[in-house]
Design a protein that fits this description.
With 76 residues, the chain is of the alpha+beta class. It has a single domain, classed as Fe-S cluster assembly (FSCA) (GMP Synthetase, Chain A, domain 3). 46% of the residues lie in helices and 28% in strands. It contains 2 helices and 3 strands, in the order αββαβ. A 3-stranded mixed sheet has the order 1-2-3. The radius of gyration is 11 Å and the shape is globular.
Length: 76
């Protein structure tokens, strides 16, 4: 596993407990051109604030570990 993927997993492990406390979860899908793709799971799928969570929580946390990341996007 590359250093980038290791750092992304660390970031997701940091944010996962917050998502799980609301009945949701997140999984890493891919990293291409400094854009991280993730899949929101459980209650996060239909949650009205999931885009805010993605930008303010997930993206910010991943950028803390990997400042080179440009964006985090959610895929189905």
């Amino acid at each position: 596993m590359s250093k980038e993927l290791t750092e992304i997993e660390k970031a997701l492990d940091e944010i996962r407990p917050f998502l799980q406390s609301d009945g949701g979860n997140i999984e890493f899908v891919s990293l291409e051109n400094d854009i991280v793709k993730v899949r929101l799971l459980g209650n996060c799928i239909g949650c009205s604030v999931n885009q805010m969570t993605l930008k303010n929580g997930v993206e910010m946390t991943i950028k803390k570990y990997l400042p080179t990341i440009k964006q985090v996007v959610s895929v189905e």
